[in-house]
Write a structure and sequence with these properties.
The structure is a homodimer of 534-residue chains. In chain A, 31% of the residues lie in helices and 21% in strands. With 534 residues, the first copy, chain A, is of the alpha/beta class. At the A-B interface, helix 1, strand 1, helix 3, strand 9 and helix 4 of A face helix 1, strand 1, helix 3, strand 9 and helix 4 of B. Chains A, B: GO terms for molecular function: tryptophan 2-monooxygenase activity.
Chain lengths: 534, 534
């Protein structure tokens, strides 16, 4: 019902929904104030000073990207760390699925049935890295993670909407060429006059404006749109003259919400090119951290109690049916806030109150193994097809063209109601639904799909949700509160960023906490040192 | 003077100039006739039937992609081939430069000074493959050439134009966000009314239209543009609220011809995503052909005479100062037409007359070795920066992020006058010019560039030009004539395609000729067989 193709996205929805079911709403407008702000856009990597002989212990709750980042930096500075992880695996929502992997979804546990092959993997969680996410890229660089280009936008992919064109899929190339063409016509014909009224346009400006409209729409000299090679040729074009395709009426095109939604998806700051992703799977970042870390990581340990102490934190966890309690100077906690609020603790009530109000995204991804890369026969290599059905998207692999088989993303649904519909199905039903819906985009879809995995993040064990969802109001009133430490306890993770659901937020939240710890340690050290001299 | 950023491109210029100095002008508009044409968009790969015991010999003139394609297919069908190549190397305008390579430019011979390293290469000719170029991709698939995504469009790259903003570079991200924002405002405010007058829009259509305008421009609820996160934040955005950047006036933005030119470059059918390129260099396609071929390739042989015979072709060439003549049943000739017309021959006068009228593009590319990948510190990975200076473009490597060094494209000039300006310089002067101009885009450019290569294709030995340039008139009157054989002689190469400068045209021209040869052979075989039976 609330699929982006069923109702056009508002500006806010674009930010909130498309950006991975997370809230990116804490946006200030400061056109008039530009130059007065001081927060740097690009954070310098945190560089902790080595501890001078002192022994400091840090407990890190959760082995996702924020926890691994913290451990890596703390270790290098001489802190003694320990990571307590509730699940059977490290990585959190960086989860690349391959042959034999266990998917710990409550009610739908699966073993990944993909063939064992290097190219047959599925990034069920984080899948792309925008080029301006310099913090996570800092670790890709530092830890030697090979990257490949990733693309959201491929003109050869399809848009399919039951509401138009008899529900038949249309190449994005054709759709966009026609929309641009007719919008360009309108601009050239009418908006120019309006612009003169509205803007301080002189004759030369108006000429430039018309030039823009022509280039935007690929208009002919008389400012008409009569089709464009941009749509691809109906026939010919290489060894015979190219024949321009017939055009579709603008009103019909606009009837699909692609025009007001997905057509502009790759304009969103975090979805625009250049995007990248590690060659071979996103979890290569996790593996790269693990290669460096000596920190002990305890898996299958569920935290049951967090106690702030006058000079530290005590954490109790359950392992193989027994409670263990550990004490540390600091605790960095990236357990999802909605779970933290249910853990026994003496964390301040105001702190817990914010956690309880913090929402959590629901998101379903389905990965499908195809026995043939049939999309390549349709000139598709990488990119996203869009549909108004629940699956919302089909992704084609950006890597390993020409291999025998491939893994498609067969559904990506971030609208809570839709994700709940998938969650209510058995795993085989989800796969069947993904195939049935995908068949509207690729008529012979079913014959190629041989197996699949489904992940409803709102039911994944020890997470019960995807990115945190901050309401605009809560972000204003509660973000700074959760970002500040409670005693020696820090909440971290992408949940403590303005862009939940992105690794950049996870890294930067850890850096933020580490910088604060270092500041406190420096003060403590000074006091101590003064003490010694006294 | 005619740089795209100095004068906005017309629709025709977009097609003619941006598409690699080749002519893509033979475009028919057939909106009303759709369905009546029969030429398939996607050619099936040519599949020659094996010769049945007969000995047929083919002389192929030129070892570019069309010649290699022909040899590969003919060999497999049992034809006996020989390739005669004028230069010291195979590949033609598929030329990937690495440490030590000889660049045979007349008047500016160079040895490529790049360090010897797998990632330090420069595609001085063909550099990208659109995903719908299924013929060249057929060989990538068949011959096992690994591909990577390539991208023309990276929002983090710059546009720089001396005419605006004091000549300061602006991120494409910022430029495009503001243009879209203000154009979106105009659309929402005024074009809607015009649309109602112009189009059969009802109230619902109008609502959708406004939704489009809002999504296009990232407008606020009151249909205003007040900046956008699409431009990137002025500050914050991850661990602190994002501050929206100030906007620039539309008239100023339009003053740069980026708005009517390069901003729409990646809409051109052959420049739109998905684009790909072989991992490690475009000449991996050439190497893949060579691994399969047993055909003898004679390098350094200049053709001096082509004689059509009653039943074949005789070709004379000069090798090490001596003339050699070879006879064959057919000759496939991909020597540039403007050179063929100067070779002694008995080719029909009408045929030669078309060749003499066929233009040839002028194109300069400069490759620069950077000792540090400074662009990555500016969040740039892949893509193109645009400037109104002669260098026109700077390309950043799409591959091997984080390596110590990298090869930039430092100039790509396809406007004849500009390319001639580069051709008139010494090689060191060209590099100095590229660095000086690049400094307007990257202030510290000079300190990073340690060596370079320059290739003015109009002066490359044995080519004297880039892609063929067909006038619209000549394409109508002469293309079919050159495409047809003259006796047993076929002119092939991308010059005999509607998209000169693309490997797709080279392959398809060869397929076209091979299909015709097979047709003739089938007829001949039938006649012969009839003769035997008589």
């Amino acid at each position: 019902m609330n699929n982006y193709l069923k109702a056009p996205l508002t500006r806010r929805q674009c930010l909130n929904l498309l950006a991975k079911a997370g809230g990116s709403s804490a946006v200030l407008h400061a056109a008039g104030l530009f130059g007065l702000t001081t927060t740097p856009l690009k954070a310098s990597p945190v560089t902790l000073k080595p501890l001078a002989g002192q022994q400091r212990k840090i407990l890190i709750l959760g082995a996702g990207i924020s926890g691994l980042t913290a451990a890596y930096e703390l270790e290098r500075a001489g802190y003694s760390c320990r990571i307590i992880e509730a699940s059977h695996r490290v990585g959190g929502r960086v989860m690349t699925l391959r042959h034999g992997d266990f998917i710990d979804e409550l009610g739908a546990p699966q073993i990944c049935p993909f063939d064992a092959a290097p190219n047959l993997y599925f990034n069920a969680g984080a899948a792309r890295i925008p080029a301006h996410h310099s913090a996570i890229l800092h670790y890709c660089r530092t830890l030697g993670v090979d990257l490949q280009l990733f693309s959201n936008h491929n003109k050869n992919c399809y848009t399919q909407d039951d509401a138009v064109f008899g529900g038949k899929p249309l190449r994005i190339r054709e759709y966009e060429a026609d929309v641009r063409g007719f919008i360009g016509e309108l601009l050239a014909k009418s908006a120019g006059a309006a612009a003169t009224a509205e803007l301080p346009f002189n004759a030369e400006d108006m000429e430039k404006f018309i030039d823009f409209a022509k280039a935007y729409g690929d208009l002919t000299a008389d400012l008409r749109y009569r089709g464009s090679e941009r749509a691809g040729y109906a026939s010919g074009g290489i060894t015979a003259p190219g024949v321009i395709k017939p055009t579709r009426p603008l009103a019909d095109l606009l009837r699909s919400n692609f025009a007001a939604g997905a057509m502009h998806f790759a304009e969103i700051a975090d979805q625009a090119p250049a995007l990248m992703t590690p060659a071979g799977g996103m979890d290569n970042i996790v593996q790269a951290f693990l290669r460096q870390l000596t920190t002990d990581i305890q898996l299958n340990c569920q935290v049951t109690n967090i106690q702030l102490l006058p000079q530290g934190v005590a954490v109790t966890y359950l392992r193989q049916g027994e409670h263990h309690t550990e004490q540390a100077d600091y605790c960095l906690n990236c357990i999802p806030a909605q779970l933290v609020s249910g853990i026994e603790s003496n964390l301040p009530a105001t702190y817990l109150a914010v956690m309880r109000r913090l929402g959590r995204g629901k998101l379903t991804k389905i990965g499908l193994q195809a026995k043939q890369r049939f999309w390549e026969q349709e000139d598709i290599y990488s990119g996203i097809s869009w549909t108004n059905q629940d699956i919302t998207q089909i992704w084609y692999p950006h890597h390993d063209a020409f291999k025998a088989k491939g893994i498609l993303l067969g559904a990506y649904s971030w609208v809570p109601e839709i994700s709940d519909r998938f969650a209510a199905m058995t795993h085989p039903q989800r796969i069947a639904a993904a195939i049935a819906q995908g068949t509207k985009v690729h008529a012979n879809y079913a014959q190629y799909i041989e197996s699949g995995v489904s992940v409803c993040w709102q039911r994944m064990n020890h997470m019960l949700g995807c990115g945190a969802v901050w309401s605009e109001e809560l972000q204003k009133t509660g973000f700074a509160q959760l970002q500040a430490p409670a005693g020696n306890h820090y909440l971290i993770g992408d949940q403590l960023s303005m862009h939940p659901g992105w690794q950049e937020g996870a890294v930067r939240s850890a850096w933020h906490a580490l910088a604060d710890i270092e500041r406190r340690e420096a003060t403590r050290g000074k006091k101590h040192s003064t003490g010694v001299m006294a």
